[in-house]
Amino acid sequence: MIQRLLLLPLAAAALLLSGCGKKDTQYVTTIVQTAADGLNLQAVTDLATKVKTAEEFEKKLNEKGNQINNLDLDEDSKVDYIKVTEINQDGQHGFSLTTELSAEENEEQELCVIQFEQGADKQVTVQTHGNSHIYGNNHYYHHRTSMTDVLLWSYLISAHRPYYSPWGYNRYPSYYSSYSPRSSAAYNNHHKAQPYAKNIQSSTKPAVQKPIKSPNFNKTASKIKAPLKNPTASQKSFQKRNPSKTLSSRKGFGSKSSSSRYGSSSSSRSRSSFGGGK
């Protein structure tokens, strides 16, 4: 009997300790900003219908006040300068947008390709195709409108020398001043409130009859820190050694994290590793 009485407090203590050892499960919401979040392609498509020349297009893309360019691929807290290359081949017209991450050769990344195609009804289809490494595969936006509404059209079909941006990394026009990126939330909320958020449609297939071939299609920069939707092997390798600061998060004691989602919050009850947004 005495032995049983002595064992009772020990059993109670063991139960108490086992209860304290249990960790409460907490699900943490992670928001990851991707490279694609820095350049809204609906805004790019809309701007392409409102400028009169390729050079003006480049200028307005990079003006801070227009709130179109918020790219920071190398995460140096400076918005990356966007270059415009005009495409004029076999009656096809368009632009390739790229950015240089450093003065090193082969550190230029194509961002998207914009194409203008006239139909038999004198309507013009304006299509923007996002680069697959940044936006994922088959990422298109398109807008069909009257020829007179595309101010660039007369410029594109006129006899002129195609525009190739002379600018690049640390080589900027006199009117340009570098600036810091806005928060992802502020940037996205601004564009969601614009008319083109409804007027310019997304698609997984091209809306033009004959997609244009970009002269910059093979330009991929390896030194990109911002998370990519479909990175190349060299981009994956670099990001593994130099992880994006948007992937860093705090974990509480005894917590389990939810799987992170690019550009949106998630409270999914998953056992995936914290911040694994690829």
Q: TL;DR?
A:
The chain has helices spanning 2-21, 41-48, 54-62, 132-135, 153-157, 184-192, 196-199, 233-241, and strands spanning 27-28, 31-32, 83-89, 92-100, 108-118, 123-130, 140-146, 201-203, 256-257, 261-262.
What would you say this structure looks like, in words?
Strand 3 and strand 4 form a beta hairpin. The chain has a domain at 36-221. It is of the alpha+beta class and 278 residues long. The chain starts with a helix and ends in a 16-residue tail after the last strand. The strands form three sheets. It has a six-stranded antiparallel β-sheet. The protein has a two-stranded parallel ribbon with strand order 1-9. A two-stranded parallel sheet has the order 2-10. 24% of the residues lie in helices and 19% in strands. It contains eight helices and ten strands.
Number of helical runs?
A: 8
Rg result:
25 Å
How far the N terminus sits from the C terminus, by CA atoms, comes to 63 Å
Number of E-type strands: 10
Major β-sheet strand ordering: 3-4-5-6-7-8
Low-confidence stretches: 249-278
Strand content: 15-25%
Coarse structural class: alpha+beta
The average pLDDT score comes to: 84
Largest sheet: 6 strands, antiparallel
Helical coverage, percent range: 10-25%
Secondary-structure element series: HEEHHEEEEHEHHHEHEE
How does the overall form come out from the CA principal axes? globular
Relevant terms:
278 residues; alpha+beta; two-stranded parallel sheet; 8 helices; 19% strand; disordered C terminus
Helix and strand topology:
Layout: H1 2-21, E1 27-28, E2 31-32, H2 41-48, H3 54-62, E3 83-89, E4 92-100, E5 108-118, E6 123-130, H4 132-135, E7 140-146, H5 153-157, H6 184-192, H7 196-199, E8 201-203, H8 233-241, E9 256-257, E10 261-262
Parallel strand pairs: 1-9, 2-10
Antiparallel strand pairs: 3-4, 4-5, 5-6, 6-7, 7-8
